[in-house]
Structures are given as structure tokens and as C-alpha cells.
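Input record (one chain):
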Amino acid sequence: MGGKRKKNEDEGSSLEHSASTSTSTSKLVLPSMIKNKEKRSAVHAKLKHQKKVEKRKKAKARDAAEKRALELGEEPPPKKIPRTIENTREFDETVCTPDDEELFAGNDADELSSILKQERTPKILLTTSRFNSTRGPAFISELLSVIPNAHYYKRGTYDLKKIVDYAKNKDFTSLIVVHTNRREPDALLIIGLPDGPTAHFKLSRLVLRKDIKNHGNPTSHQPELVLTNFTTRLGHRIGRLIQSLFPQDPHFRGRRVVTFHNQRDFIFFRHHRYIFESKESKQSHSKVKKGEDAKDEKISKEKVIARLQECGPRFTLKLISLQHGTFDTKGGEYEWVHKPEMDTSRRRFFL
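The corresponding structure, as predicted from the sequence alone:
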């Protein structure tokens, strides 16, 4: 009898253990474990709602803690910095520092120093590939309105090396070739003259001025140039090459800005006009006195607001190669070439 009782007790305890494990597994059911589509979507929506509620609770608690600290005259708790791909990038030895004497010495001796020191004025020659498309001329006409002192020449059947020699003889400082494929511009080749360097970019997401909603028309003033996030030695060199396309004395009255923003090795191009406006903001303050109703007093404050209007075009560049000297496919020396094996990590950037 005693043996049977022990057996029954063991069976009961095993049943309780299996029930507890089944409840714990039912709590940890993931949507990917459910085969039924309707049930899977319902579980996914429930988990998403729970995360949203928890996030809202944390935000409310954080705001309450800040308010309490301000009331007590204490310092509020420090704000948490979110983890992004940019601030968790892999360590790179070539990142420039403000006290890098070698970098400044190289800037004074490179091929672009005469233009950036305003000893030579930028003069740009624009041309296309041999087989041009329908959107190519429209893109070039908008580039002519963006880059001051740019001149367009038809490519014809000339080789690129002959065009480079012609541009050198005519005292051009840079040569830009717009390459097209399947009736769409897909690459840019920027050649610094007379000694290089040559940068080859992949061009994507092109939006012309006519396709931008509420676009503005640019003026003939020389634009201001904004280059952001070119932090490495390679990025610094690409930034100087782009900088050599524009004059170094912008006309601030024109209120034109040309922006090259580097993010995750993609260079985003934007062209804007800006204006500063002063607006009056009215704030009401209620003063409550004994035996009197609350009176609202409106205090006007002036705020300066900056407004932007995009002029177009809008496109994205991705560096493919950087070659030392002018264009030479056979005997050219490459400073940097993008290869597929470089894209092993999402947190590895080169510009």
C-alpha cells in the first residue's frame, strides 16, 4: 500500500510540473511558432500593444521624475542616448582629429589646394556618356543652375582622355561626366584637373525639380556649401574634391544653400533657398487674486523662424572608386576601390 501511495504522489507531482511548464511555455509563445495565420497576427498585435503600453509607462515615469527633480531644485536624471548604427560604428584609425598636423600639411600640398586657397577660380566642364538618355539633358540643365561657372559640351564620339586633354588646354578645373543606363542617369565621374583625383560615384534616387512639390527656382547667386559628416581621411579627400567644384566666396544675399550630407557612406544632395521670418507668439498668463476672477494677460514675444524651400534636383551618391591622377582605366593607380567583401558589417563606414 505504501508503495502505491508513493507512486500516486510521484504521478501527481509530475502532472503538476508538466502543467506549470505548459503554462510557462504558453506565456512565451512567439508569433513565429504559430502556423495559423490569423492566430499569429493576433498574437503579434497583442505583443506589440503590450510593448507600446510598457514604453508609455516608462516615458510617464521619466517625465514624473524630471518634474519632481525640478520642483525640489535638483538636477534631472540624465537623458539616455539611443543606440544607433552611427554611434556604435567600428573603430577606424583614419578618423580625422582637429590637431592632426599631417592632415593639414597634406591639404596644403594636394592637387586641390590652389582652388581652395582662391588662387584659381573653379571652371567646370559638363558632358555625358556617348549614348545619352531623355532625362540626362534635364539633369544636366539643373546641374548647370546649381554649379556656378559650369559649361556643357556635347560628348559626340570623343574618347574621355581626349576630352580631359581639351579641358586642360582650356583651363578647366574639373570635369563632370554624367553616365546613363536604360534612359536613366546612374553614375557620376568627377575629375579634378590638371592632376586629379578622379572619383566615380553611383547615382540613385534622382528627383528632378519639376517633380518636387512646391519647389522654388534658384537665382544666379553663388551658393553656400555645407559638407557634413566627412570624418575619415578618405571622406576628407572626397569633401575637398566636392568643395573644389564651387567658388569659395558665396553670395549670402542670394540665400542659396547646397548640401552634401554623408550618412552611412551615402552622400545625399539637396539644394535649398532659405529665409528668416520673425513671428509674434502670444502667451496667456492668468493672475488669481482674492475675491476676483482670473484675468488673462497676453504677452507677445518675437521668434525668428527659418523657412526652407527646395529648389532641386535631389539625388544620392555612393562612392565606387577614387583614382590618383586623371582618368586612366589601364595604368591608373587607385587610392580606394569599393569591393563586395567590404560590406561584411553594417557598422563599418569608410567616409
